[in-house]
Automatic annotation (TrEMBL):
Matching PANTHER family: TRANSCRIPTIONAL REGULATOR, MARR, TRANSCRIPTIONAL REPRESSOR OF EMRAB OPERON
Alphabetical keyword list: DNA-binding, Transcription, Transcription regulation
Organism classification: Bacteria, Bacillati, Actinomycetota, Coriobacteriia, Coriobacteriales
Originating species: Thermophilibacter provencensis
DNA-binding listed as a keyword: yes
InterPro entries on file: HTH_MarR-typ, Tscrpt_reg_MarR-type_CS, WH-like_DNA-bd_sf, WH_DNA-bd_sf
HTH marR-type domain sequence ranges: 1-140
Classification via Pfam families: MarR_2
Name recorded for this polypeptide: MarR family transcriptional regulator
């Protein structure tokens, strides 16, 4: 039987915290008139200086190609991004903010990034370092455990 302290340090407590964080971003994206995926795509384009390879978005956010393509079509339809072939490629595409996308990003995405930076900076250097170290360790551990579970199910 778990007491209150056990509940505070359980995997379920971490899951709940991740869900709350996801909800914050989901609601912010919706407030911007975007899907969560579209928000993160604009975020990726912004932090990349206004242009980023489509492949990078899929890799950095672990989105499927289909999910990214769907969000890109919606962003393109809103006139916020252009999608062009990378120089010298007939397959690889680059996502770039349009002038309308730049204005939207300056109004909605940049302030969110700055707020995120302020929130993270409110932690001490040691806390930030420890938080990242532990998050990486946990991500690697859960990846190993779920991969092992998947391997057992495939037997």
């Amino acid at each position: 039987m778990m007491d209150d302290r056990d509940e505070l340090v359980s995997a379920r407590a971490l899951d709940a915290l991740y869900q709350k964080t996801d909800k914050v971003y989901y609601e912010f994206a919706r407030g911007c008139g975007l899907s969560e995926t579209a928000y993160w795509i604009l975020y990726a384009v912004e932090v990349s200086g206004g242009s980023v390879a489509q492949r990078v978005i899929s890799e950095e956010f672990s989105y499927s190609k289909q999910t990214v393509n769907s969000a890109l079509k919606a962003l393109e339809a809103k006139g916020l991004i252009s999608l062009d072939f990378a120089e010298g490629s007939r397959k690889a595409k680059v996502v770039t903010l349009t002038p309308e996308g730049r204005a939207f990003s300056d109004e909605r995405i940049v302030p969110a990034i700055e707020a995120e930076d302020r929130a993270f900076s409110s932690l001490s250097v040691e806390e930030r370092s420890e938080f990242l170290r532990l998050a990486r360790a946990y991500t690697a551990a859960i990846d190993r455990e779920l991969a092992a579970l998947g391997a057992r199910e495939g037997e």
